[in-house]
Design a protein that fits this description.
Structural class: alpha+beta
Number of helices: 2
Low-confidence stretches: none
Shape: elongated
Distance between the termini: 58 Å
Length: 84
């Protein structure tokens, strides 16, 4: 790698606010906010909307959509489709 063209790769804490979960990893992300981690060191913290702790794919708590109601509403509005 060429020197001086890549961002600094350093430890960063990613915090999932919805699940109240945080993890320490290495990243090039930057942040003005910092957090004191379990090891006593202070690291930049990046707040994320969703992580593996709160994502429905990983938690198995996917929401069921009312697809039947949507189809019926569509058919009432635009008429039923001829059998194809």
């Amino acid at each position: 790698m060429r020197e001086g063209i890549h961002p600094e790769y350093r430890p960063v804490v990613f915090r999932d606010r919805a699940a109240d979960y945080a993890f320490l990893t290495r990243s090039t992300m930057t942040s003005e906010r910092t957090i004191e981690w379990e090891d006593g060191n202070t690291y930049p913290v990046v707040d994320v909307e969703i992580s593996n702790v709160s994502h429905p794919f990983y938690t198995g708590t996917a929401r069921v959509l009312d697809t039947a109601g949507r189809v019926e509403r569509f058919e009432r509005r635009y008429g039923k489709r001829d059998g194809a």
